[in-house]
């Protein structure tokens, strides 16, 4: 089992930055592909970013590529999402997710992730 706890959300003006953190429990964090997703009211959960177990490979959703950066520190069992040039349309609840260690590939599909955090709210004002 992997437990995930997000932090770092809040209210920011358009053009600003936030860094989200996701702390994971368990001894096998370095064996888990990690991802960030977001969900706005009335919309489906949207892929934001994913990172490989080593941190070498990353993938981004089209709407955030070039503005957001995912990273991880396996010594701290933590994955991060640096969000720059924020826009009002980035407003959503942001979720951290982990794939079971048997899966080694990145994925943009929420159903391919086995563990989820409770989410953290990000609100971008215009």
Structure characteristics:
126 residues, mainly beta, seven-stranded mixed beta sheet, four-stranded antiparallel beta sheet, 45% strand
Describe this structure in words.
This protein has 126 residues and is mainly beta. The chain has no helices and 11 strands. It has strands at residues 4-7, 10-13, 18-24, 34-39, 46-51, 58-60, 68-73, 78-83, 92-98, 115-116, 120-125. The strands form 2 sheets. Strands 2, 4, 5, 6, 9, 10 and 11 form a 7-stranded mixed beta sheet that branches. Strands 1-3-8-7 form a 4-stranded antiparallel beta sheet, with no helix packed on it. Strand 4 (34-39) and strand 5 (46-51) form a beta hairpin. The mean pLDDT is 96.
Distance between the termini: 40 Å
Q: Using DSSP, what is the number of strands?
A: 11
Task: Kindly name the structural category.
Answer: mainly beta
Major β-sheet annotation: 7 strands, mixed
SSE order, as H and E? EEEEEEEEEEE
Mean pLDDT score, rounded?
96
The percentage helix is under 10%
């Amino acid at each position: 089992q992997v437990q995930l706890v997000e932090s770092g959300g809040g209210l920011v003006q358009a053009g600003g930055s936030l860094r989200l953190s996701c702390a994971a429990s368990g001894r096998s964090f370095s064996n888990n592909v990690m991802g960030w997703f977001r969900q706005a009211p009335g919309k489906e959960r949207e892929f934001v970013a994913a990172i490989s177990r080593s941190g070498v490979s990353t993938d981004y959703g089209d709407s955030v590529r070039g503005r957001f950066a995912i990273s991880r520190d396996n010594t701290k069992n933590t994955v991060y999402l640096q969000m720059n040039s924020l826009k009002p349309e980035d407003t959503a609840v942001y979720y951290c997710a982990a794939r079971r260690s048997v899966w080694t590939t990145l994925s943009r599909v929420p159903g391919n992730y086995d563990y989820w955090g409770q989410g953290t709210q990000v609100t971008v004002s215009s």
